[in-house]
Structures are given as C-alpha cells and as structure tokens.
Amino acid sequence: MDSSAKKVLYIDLNSKSYEVKGETELAEYVGGVGIGLKIFSNFKERDPIIISVGPLNGFFPYASKTSIILSDEGVIEDIYIGGTLGSRIRFSGLDAIVLMGRSSDKVVLDITNENASFKENEIDLGTLGLPGMRSILAEDSNGKMLIDRYFTSPERFLEKKLNEKNVHAMTITGSKTFDLKNKQKYEEIYRNLLSRTDEMYVKQFGNPSCSGCPMGCEMSKTGELGGNVLIHCLVACTYAEGIYSDIGVIFSCLNVLGYDYTHEDLEKLPKLINGLLKDIEE
Amino acid sequence: MTKILKAKFPEKCIGCELCILEMQRQINKIGFEGSVIRVLKKPRMNTDGADGLEYSIVLDPQINKFDIKKIKEICPTQVFTIEDQENGLIG
C-alpha cells in the first residue's frame, strides 16, 4: 500500500463532473477525520462533504466505520457511520469522496471504483452498482438517511446537507482486490485481532453488523459523533478503542499492509488535527 | 465421501462478511471481486414496516475446493454446516 499519497474522488455537483487525484499533501493525515479535515480546509468555500476511510478499513476487524466531515451552519461536524460503506470505499481504491457545490436538480450519484455517474432522481437504486459489492445511501420514508437501508448517522446533519446539495441518494461499488504480500504475518495479526472480542466495549449480539466486524452489536445501527482522533483517522469503531488505541497494534497492521508510516507519524496526529481545526476556524 | 459447505442457518447471518474475506484470503486476496460466496441483503419487514435486515448467502459449488472448515469456523453466528455428499446426493 502507498503511504505517499491519498486517492480522492472529487465530485463537482454544479457541473456534474468528477476527477480522481492522488494527493501527496494528505499522506501525513493518515486517513478518516485527518484527511477529511484537511480536504475541508482546502475547499471550505465550496461547502464540501468529505466521506473518507482509513488505511485499515476493509483489511482488519473492527476497522469498519466511515468518516464524514461537513459544516452544519458554520459548525464542523465529524460523523462516523457503519454498515458496508467503509469496505466498499476501500475496495473502490479510493481514500475519500468529496461532494462539492450543489446540483441544479435532484440527482443520484452512482460511484463504481473511480468512476462516477449522475442519474435521475427516479432511478431504481437496485439497478445501480453490483449487488454484494455495493453500499446504498438513501433516505427512508421518514426522511432519515440510511446506509444499506439500516445504518444511520447521529443527528440529521448528513440528510440536511445532502438535501441542500440536491443529492437524493448514492450508491458506491468497490470491486477491486488487493494482493497479500505477507500472508502468514497478515493472517497472524488478523486472527489475533478477531479473537479479542472481549476487549470490545460492546457485547456480541444478533443485529446487522458492519463489514468486517463479528459483533453485530446493539450500537452498530446509530453511528458515532466526535471522539478519539487516532481511532477516527483509522476509522475504526469507537467501541474498539481498547484495541486500536495501542500504537504497537496499529503499527503492526500498517506495516504488514506495506504502509511505511512511523510511530512518530501516528503520535503527531492529534497535534496536526488540532492545527487544522484552528486554521478552519480562523 | 466429499465434504460440502452449506449455509444452513441464513437467518442467523449478521452480514459481517467475514466468510467472504476468509475465502479470499485463502487465495491471497483481499476484496470481494471473484468471491464464490455472496452475502446479499434486503430490509426485513414486519407489520410496522422495515425493522432490520435479512441476509441471503449464495454459495458457488466451487467453495468446496477451499478450506471450508476455516470458513465455517470464522462465522460468529454459526450460519454454516459441513455435510457429507455421497454419489451426488447430500447425506
């Protein structure tokens, strides 16, 4: 995996166009809330929504959320939602999807890997993307935005902002695969993490679970708002904080995937994020 | 006798997709493309409307060329069983 750049899909809703860029300046922010805030600071005049994942999403258990950064009446909100969205973005090959501007008419965004298309509002969402490899973000009959027709976000910041932008729904399909370079070591770390369910802050339950998480917990449906910066740069579940707040664990995971982040890179993240927040507020 | 994997208790599935990821790891891959297991979901309906998700698991017969014991064991809700198949009939 490449630590030197993050791949970002920029969608301009005004012109209904898009482009993918490899952004080297995002690399030091690692992922999730880190790259989300940096992109927000770069494009804040275009009122962006930044949907992003971290380097462990799709690869390791409990790294199963998706970070969303947006401005709600001038206040920056960081939201974390579950379901399959994070793994679909990971397997699309992207680190972030950015929605900028506003569409003149209601649209449905259909994203497959690094390509986006703009569909009419009335389209049957079931006809878009690839079943089993897609995630659907759409409102239910009560106007609540749902991922995979089940998972929600706290408050209604996301629904409000998507409505302002005239985005009716989104589908995201990820059909890329990654080769394992060091299968034995990867398997060892993966199995170890998977066996640590007793260190989760939630109990195993029979509810719909996020992709890559064995918990099926009672909290999976509702998503998260704010919290630990390091966890949210990885976009791990906040209830896995007992596992993913250990820098040694994170470093092992990153290392086996081929990322060349150092301990120092991870340790300086909180300071970097605080600096970004100050810049945005000025 | 041949051992075959069956998704005998799909109603227990929580959609974690660990089975797919396990199968893909066995061929040195991470991702969903090319998987011989598909986990599909639809809203679970009751009289008040949707109250959850209902999953269906589609197994390509090629799954039985994999280490199916590992796939069975990684499922946190015991959706899968391994059964004997003799002369094309499930025993």
TrEMBL record, chain A:
GO molecular function per UniProt: iron-sulfur cluster binding; oxidoreductase activity, acting on the aldehyde or oxo group of donors, iron-sulfur protein as acceptor
Alphabetical list of SMART domains matching this protein: AFOR_N
Any one Pfam family match given in the protein's UniProt record, by short name: AFOR_N
Cross-referenced InterPro entries: Ald_Fedxn_OxRdtase_N (IPR013983), Ald_Fedxn_OxRdtase_N_sf (IPR036503), W-dependent_AOR (IPR051919)
Source species, domain of life: Bacteria
Domain Aldehyde ferredoxin oxidoreductase N-terminal per the UniProt entry, residue ranges: 5-176
Protein name: Aldehyde ferredoxin oxidoreductase N-terminal domain-containing protein
Classification lineage: Bacteria, Katanobacteria
TrEMBL record, chain B:
Identification of the protein by name: Uncharacterized protein
Organism: candidate division WWE3 bacterium RIFCSPHIGHO2_02_FULL_38_14
